[in-house]
Specification:
Layout: H1 5-11, H2 25-30, E1 52-56, H3 57-62, H4 69-72, E2 107-111, E3 114-115, E4 137-143, H5 148-151, E5 158-164, E6 170-180, E7 187-198, E8 201-212, E9 215-216, E10 227-230, E11 233-236, E12 246-247, E13 268-269, E14 283-284, E15 298-300, E16 303-315, E17 320-337, E18 341-347, E19 360-364, E20 383-387, E21 393-399, E22 406-425, E23 428-449, H6 451-460, H7 474-477, E24 480-505, E25 508-526, H8 529-532, E26 544-565, E27 568-582, E28 586-598, E29 603-614, H9 618-622, E30 626-631, E31 640-645, E32 654-665, E33 673-689, H10 693-700, H11 710-715, E34 718-719, E35 725-728, E36 732-752, E37 755-772, E38 778-779, E39 783-784, E40 790-791, E41 794-803, E42 807-816, E43 820-821, E44 839-849, E45 854-861, E46 890-898
């Protein structure tokens, strides 16, 4: 039978997931009222004016995935900084989805059509995908369009709706295992799902336990040491905060220690006992003295996770049912980084010995007394060699390998419970529900040092920082402590809705959905007491606490305009409006208009224009001041600037205009083939962001002409004797972002050699992604950054599946086009690798049904062991773990038993 274009509008949205079967027309008609993501109207078809991607449970299993983030992040419509297990520095063990590269905060995550609690560590403001039990997923619907008029805040880039198994019957057991070709990053998972139906309802219970192992940066050639660039090419380098200690200058005055180019440089290395392997007396610092921090950093982070799920329905009467959902997740996760770098100033006294008196440094001078540092005829600063002396203020840095690596540990509990009722009154469907969620986290950071106490001991003369033995003494160990922070978030929603048919029009019945919601959110973060006092070497971190409530009402309409006309088999207008009133900023509204034009059985056109918004989160509104260490470039300065960030209670919502236009084509002359093409355009104003840190450095550091500007006055920028740049940079409604591009999806189903085949190609072309905060707009399309991930112009997934009676096999190729390094734009000749090459990952997998009870699945991801590329200005591990696979070849296998 000819497959229905109604279903193809949705089903062909992402042929990468090749186990999705196209629904036959008579099967679609058999569905009695369903609700597709992007609409609250329950209807008997699957037509949608918006592009929707479907991912089935079989797709997830075929990819060897035990967490949904590893599936979603491979979609071509994703980009930017998607937190995943390969992100060691700053991930907190979380996993995020980022549609269109617009940020995880602009992608709304739903479970069974209702909001999921913001989760993870601290005052979480996005959903941690670890809280989603993969074994309980029936399918995932991804709406690649703005949907604030339907769902409210956050649905700017799109919506991910995770639908759980609510009608499962029987018992299913699954055991999964995976390991890399290097023998590390093992992952083992076991789960069971049991369900039963009875006269009045159904109950489903699921449990999944996952144990993920680690990999070290030392175990891959591309990441075993930090790479820097010189005139002779690439070389291993590291941090100036090294074992044994490091002196910057002798008097603490900014900029007095320089090389011939006027760049601030490190001068002396404490190395009496050969700690760094150099041996001998003190000497001038060279690259050989730098500390290689890679071997002690994870390349892939370990985690344990327990997911519990319960779903039940109970029929009170023929027209009324009760339903409930419960999920609980316990996560234990870890990251590891190099020993803590510490830095502080002290006065060099006689009590510290005479070891520094014969050491020297180069100091810029003002010999003619005109108030300006002297330069020679070539423009280089004039310096004089100076000796240290008693009374000098010493700027000192040290890598604390004496006490061990820093261990980051998180323990996170996330619970979500929904209870409600639904039914029919005449021809109208109704439902009411209460949705409660709570997330509690404890994160620990071990092997930190109480720098306040160490400073007091230096002042009291009981600790000599120039004595190597003092750093490893039993008394010094008393300064080592574990930071313990607590955080959490809470969500409570009361909702009521009604939907049905309004009236009969010449082209069919007009339908509607209407509802009201009241949502309350709060979040908090309580830092460790020493951290809150600023005694942990880093600046003090303030607490976060606050909340808001919002009342919302919405109305959605589906109006048939034409039916059974030439070139207009069915034309429908959809419209939605939502009004909201927030306790934090007041009231407003958002709207959507959509049109589907089904010309005939072969061709359907569709378009949606809408407004969307994102309300500021609790963390954005009420976050206390805390330090952020951002990558910057400035002659003689450290690469990481100390930036004070924090919330802003005066924030207002982000506002967006969205447009999608597309077509669905299934030619009768090419049986089994289908195509969808969609253009998207998202324009965000009033964006909540901070000024680019590099921009502040360029505009404000040592720039007297800009000293009185509001930007530089609020930044309060400075640079200390160690070359550490410091400034303030709190979030504001000052940005704009615009992105546009095309999604192309091709699918072909056919039979050959007695087998069923399916081929698919899913491609996203990013035409533009422009950000503007201050200064000129910046184009990110085709660019890879040092901390915000990559924005490839072309991402494409090719898939081929073949199935027999009791087996199937799949091949997938994932393409990421080459990108330009953001750091090198306009100065490509100064970079060793100003671009990345295009990358293709190849995956193979297969399943075999032994009998009606037992099935086996196995596969290899990254079949040819493709290594991530190096690029100048990289993020971590000399590459970008947000964008590229850092593990290499990975083998997986699973067994499924069903009764």
């Amino acid at each position: 039978m000819k497959k229905s274009i109604i279903s193809l509008a949705v089903i062909t949205a992402i042929p990468m997931f090749t186990s999705i079967e196209v629904v036959a027309a008579d099967e679609v008609q058999a569905i009695e009222k369903i609700q597709v993501t992007g609409s609250r109207i329950k209807r008997s078809d699957m037509e949608s004016a918006s592009p929707i991607t479907l991912i089935s449970a079989d797709d997830i299993q075929a990819m060897g995935a035990t967490s949904i983030d590893s599936v979603l992040q491979k979609m071509t419509a994703t980009g930017g900084a998607m937190t995943n297990p390969g992100v060691n520095n700053g991930s907190g063990g979380n996993a995020r989805i980022d549609l269109r590269g617009l940020g995880a905060q602009r992608t709304l995550v739903l479970v069974n059509g209702r909001r999921m609690i913001n989760s993870g560590t601290g005052a979480a403001s996005t959903v941690d995908l670890n809280t989603i039990p993969v074994s309980m997923i029936k399918q995932v619907e991804v709406l690649k369009d703005g949907a604030s008029a339907v769902y409210g805040s956050d649905a700017v880039a799109g919506v991910v709706n995770i639908i759980l198994k609510d009608d499962f019957e029987g018992l299913e057991l699954n055991a999964n295992t995976a390991i890399t070709g290097e023998g590390d990053a093992s992952e083992n998972s076991i789960d069971f799902t049991v369900g039963s139906s009875f006269d009045k309802g159904n109950i489903v219970i699921g449990m999944q336990y996952t144990d993920r192992g680690k990999a070290s940066q030392a175990d891959r050639d591309f990441s075993k040491c930090p790479i820097d660039e010189g005139v002779d090419g690439l070389f291993c380098t590291g941090s100036a905060y090294n074992e044994g200690g490091h002196i910057w200058n002798g008097n603490g005055a900014k900029g007095t220690t320089v090389n011939a180019k006027g760049e601030d440089t490190q001068v002396s290395l404490i190395d009496d006992d050969g700690v760094t392997g150099r041996g001998g007396d003190y000497h001038r610092y060279t690259n050989e003295d730098s500390y290689n921090y890679s071997p002690t950093s994870y390349l892939y982070t370990p985690m344990e996770r327990l997911n519990l799920t319960g779903i039940a329905t109970y029929e009170l009467s023929d027209d009324t049912s009760l339903f409930t959902e419960f999920t609980y997740t316990k996560r234990w996760s870890e990251q590891q980084m190099a020993p803590q770098p510490v830095w502080f100033d002290f006065e060099y006294t006689q009590a510290m010995g005479d070891s520094m008196l014969n050491q020297s440094y180069d100091q810029r001078v003002d010999l003619d007394g005109d108030g300006y540092l002297d330069k020679d005829a070539d423009g280089n600063y004039v310096t004089q060699e100076m000796n240290y002396k008693y009374g000098d203020k010493i700027s000192y840095g040290r890598r604390m390998s004496d006490t061990g690596e820093r261990y980051f540990e998180q323990s996170v509990d996330t619970v979500r419970a929904v209870i409600g009722a639904e039914g029919l009154i005449g021809d109208y469907a109704w439902d009411v529900s209460a949705n409660f969620g709570r997330n509690d986290s404890v994160d620990k950071l071990s092997n930190l040092h109480n720098m306040g106490a160490i400073g007091d001991q230096i002042d009291a003369g009981t600790f000599n920082p120039l004595d190597q033995q003092a750093w490893v003494s039993d008394n010094f160990r008393k300064n080592v402590y574990t930071e313990v922070n607590n955080g959490g978030s809470q969500l409570f929603i009361l909702a009521a809705a009604v939907s049905g048919e309004l009236l009969e029009l010449p082209a069919g019945y007009a339908a509607f959905a209407a509802g009201v919601e009241r949502r309350q959110e709060k979040a908090w973060f309580t830092p460790d007491s020493l951290t809150a006092q600023g005694l942990a070497n880093d600046p003090r971190v303030e607490a976060t606490s606050g909340g808001f409530d919002v009342n919302e009402a919405y109305l959605e309409l589906a109006i048939p305009l034409l039916a059974d006309k030439p070139f207009a088999e069915h034309v429908e207008l959809s419209a939605a409006i939502r009004a909201f009133d927030y306790s934090t900023f007041g009231s407003d509204e958002t709207w959507k208009l959509g049109l589907t034009w089904k010309a005939n059985d072969e061709l359907m056109l569709r378009s949606v224009v809408s407004t969307a918004f994102r309300a500021p989160t609790v963390n954005e509104l009420y976050s206390g001041n805390s330090p952020s260490f951002d990558q910057v470039d400035y002659p003689g300065a450290q690469k990481q600037a100390e930036v004070t960030v924090g919330g802003n209670s005066a924030l207002t919502p982000e506002e967006a205009d969205t447009l999608t236009v597309g077509l669905v084509y299934e030619p009768q002359w090419f049986d089994g083939f289908s195509m969808t093409v969609d253009y998207f355009d998202i324009d965000i104003e009033n964006a909540i962001t901070k000024v680019d840190s590099q921009y502040i450095v360029d505009q404000c550091l040592n720039n007297a002409a800009n000293a009185t500007t509001p930007l530089c006055q609020s930044a309060g920028i400075s640079i200390d004797a160690t070359g550490r740049i410091k400034f303030n940079n709190k979030i504001q409604n000052i940005g704009s972002e615009k992105t546009s591009g095309y999604d192309l999806n091709l699918a072909y189903n056919f039979e050959a050699a007695g087998l069923n085949w399916r081929a698919g190609l899913d491609t996203t072309y990013l035409d533009e992604y422009v950000k503007q905060v201050t200064g000129d707009p910046v184009e990110y399309a085709g660019v890879i950054t040092s901390g915000s991930g990559g924005y490839a112009e072309i991402k494409s997934n090719l898939s081929l599946k073949v199935a027999g009676d009791s087996w199937d096999a799949q091949y997938k190729a994932r393409y990421i086009s080459g990108m330009d390094s953001f750091k090198c734009i306009g100065k490509e000749d100064t970079c060793y690798a100003p671009t990345t090459p295009s990358v293709v990952y190849h995956d193979v997998s297969g399943s075999y049904l032994i009998n009606e009870t037992v099935a086996l699945t196995a596969g290899i991801n990254n079949l040819f062991d493709k290594q991530p590329p190096y690029y100048s200005g990289n993020n971590d591990s000399n590459t970008d773990p947000y964008t590229y696979d850092v593990l290499g070849r990975r083998f997986f296998a699973s067994m499924s038993i069903k009764f």
